[in-house]
Amino acid sequence: MIKSDASAYQGINGTIDIDSTLVLSIRNYFNGYIDNVKITTRAKTSDEILTAATLAGYFSFDMPSPYNDNGPNSVNGTQNSAVIVSGRVNQAIHFSGSSSYFYAYDFFARWSSSWIILVGPYLTTNTWTHISVTYSYTNGLTLYVNGGYFGQTGRFTFTSSGYITYLQLGFMYTCSSSGSVSNSAYQGSVDEVYVHSRELTQAEVTTLSSS
């Protein structure tokens, strides 16, 4: 039940059944998986519910646990030769441009049978730049820079990789049979990394870029 300003909350003590329901003395059981059940003491907004359902990972790189996932799935990461420095928001992770990297494991990704290339602009050094890339079957990859639209590939199809995938930042740590989402060696700092399981709108990207 949800309490609103229109009426008082009418609730009673009781038990919660997660794996079954009882209807007319007949118990019906659920066949499947359930994970991460949470009960809140307030009514959540639609934006909060959407974020909880589609935020696959969020890495703020803030102390005291800079390599932990701050999203709902706890996909914690690890690093090699990277350091924590002052960031765009609180702290950030800094890469040396050689063998330093960060990676988190337990994502599911999709493959394309050919290379999909979307070239961005030259970036200004020593300046924070917000980069966002989204995907949908209709639009393909869309690149946003500092909240503004920059370019798009057009429609193409992904198929499931069939592997649990690494998310990597800073350096291509591995490209094993488990698959990887990676980049080449990078020198600089990274902060506030979000991974969503849906295509964000430009308005949502703009909001993230200014937060």
What does it look like?
The protein has a 4-stranded mixed β-sheet with strand order 4-7-11-12, with no helix packed on it. The chain has a 3-stranded antiparallel β-sheet with strand order 5-6-13, with no helix packed on it. A 3-stranded antiparallel β-sheet has the order 8-9-10. It is mostly beta strands and 211 residues long. 16% of the residues are buried. It contains 2 helices and 14 strands. It has helices at residues 46-54, 202-210, and strands at 20-23, 26-29, 55-59, 77-80, 83-86, 91-96, 101-111, 131-136, 140-145, 148-152, 159-169, 180-181, 187-190, 193-196. Residues 175-180 have low confidence and may be disordered. The protein has a single domain (46-118, 127-210), classed as Sandwich (Jelly Rolls), CATH 2.60.120. Strand 5 and strand 6 form a beta hairpin.
